[in-house]
């Protein structure tokens, strides 16, 4: 069974290096300069891609939440106004597209509504990510499917039955499924990393991990357990304003994360027992060959 698909210029799946994504999301706080700095952070760390989130606020914000007031860096404003403040439009995405090309890093987005898919489509993304909140939005999944691009599903807040329904709609080819728990930040006891193994047994396509925990060891463990796609939110500083900042990885941590995942990949081997050439001088020097005494 071959578990792989193509993301950008990379084959992703069993036997290939993990595709590592720095999730910028809305951690740019509506500032294109912060977005560019985060692209630099991901590119300098050796990530394969960065990911953004795209919404049409008037479609994605429920009517009962639109006029709810909240404190923001832009003052005490309605939730709908806040969603517009953190939303990039055409000029910003043109800059993002050019900047990522210059830094030789892929970029794509989680689209929360059909017009957002149509908007991002003009930039020829390598894939689309279905956020956990949209896993049961069948018309939106179908709209993604009709782009013909690879689809990355995120399984937070979903049951196995809901995951299977989403897979039944998008199909089992050109798809990747991420294990995830949608708590920000996620307690260690709710990460349930063994679900990576469960999903690998259940589905024939590549399985990844989208983490929202604090720290790096558990994400590295996910890679060692077979996750071929790794995604973590990234930030310039976890103390910055924003709902996702505290569950994000700072620049130094991202560099270590990518480095350690690559070390793990190098060390996994093929599972075939052998005597390495480097062992042979040690074998010759230390091995004693003794026969068992005969009691005949």
Walk me through the structure.
This protein is 37% helix and 19% strand. The protein is built from twelve helices and twelve strands. Helix 1 (32-45) packs parallel to helix 5 (90-102), helix 1 runs parallel beside helix 11 (251-268) and helix 10 (217-224) packs parallel to helix 11 (251-268). The longest helix is centred in the last third of the chain and has 18 residues, at 251-268. The termini are far apart.
Number of helices: 12
The outline comes out as elongated
- Report how far apart the termini are: 52 Å
* Relative helix content: 25-40%
Q: Give, in spatial order, the strands making up the sheet with the most strands.
A: 3-4-7-8-9-10-11-12
Q: Mind telling me the CATH superfamily name?
A: Aldolase class I
Major sheet characteristics: 8 strands, parallel, barrel
Please identify the top-level CATH class: Alpha Beta
Order of helices and strands: EEEHEHHEEHHEHEHEHEHEHEHH
Mean pLDDT score, rounded?
Answer: 96
Corresponding CATH architecture: Alpha-Beta Barrel
Q: How many strands appear in the DSSP assignment?
A: 12
CATH fold annotation: TIM Barrel
Structural class: alpha/beta
Task: Supply the number of structural domains.
Answer: 1
Which residues sit in consecutive blocks of at least 5 with pLDDT less than 50?
none
Q: What is Rg?
A: 22 Å
In percent, how much strand structure appears in the residues? 15-25%
């Amino acid at each position: 069974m071959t578990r792989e698909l193509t993301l950008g210029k990379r084959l992703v799946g069993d036997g290939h290096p993990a595709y590592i994504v720095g999730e910028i999301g809305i951690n740019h706080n509506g500032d294109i300069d912060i977005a560019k700095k985060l692209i630099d952070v991901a590119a300098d760390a050796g990530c394969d891609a960065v990911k953004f989130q795209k919404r049409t606020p008037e479609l994605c914000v429920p009517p009962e939440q639109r006029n709810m007031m909240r404190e923001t860096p832009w003052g005490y404003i309605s939730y709908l106004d806040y969603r517009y403040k953190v939303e990039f439009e055409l000029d910003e995405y043109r800059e993002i597209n050019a900047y990522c090309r210059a830094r030789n890093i892929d970029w794509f987005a989680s689209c929360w509504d059909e017009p957002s898919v149509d908007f991002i489509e003009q930039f020829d993304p390598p894939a689309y990510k279905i956020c956990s909140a949209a896993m049961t939005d069948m018309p939106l999944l179908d709209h993604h499917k009709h782009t013909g691009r690879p689809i990355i599903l995120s399984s937070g807040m979903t049951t196995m039955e809901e995951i299977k329904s989403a897979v039944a709609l998008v199909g089992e080819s050109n798809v990747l499924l991420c294990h995830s728990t949608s708590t920000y930040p996620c307690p260690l006891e709710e990460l349930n990393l063994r679900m990576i193994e469960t999903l690998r047994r259940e589905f024939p396509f590549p399985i990844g991990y989208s983490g929202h925990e604090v720290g790096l060891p558990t994400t590295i463990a996910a890679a060692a357990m077979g996750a071929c796609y790794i995604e973590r939110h990234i930030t310039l500083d976890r103390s910055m304003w924003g709902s996702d900042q505290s569950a994000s990885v700072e620049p130094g941590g991202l560099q270590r994360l990518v480095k350690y995942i690559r070390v793990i990949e190098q060390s996994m081997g093929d599972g075939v027992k052998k005597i390495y050439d480097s062992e042979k001088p040690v074998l010759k020097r230390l091995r004693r060959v003794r026969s068992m005494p005969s009691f005949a």
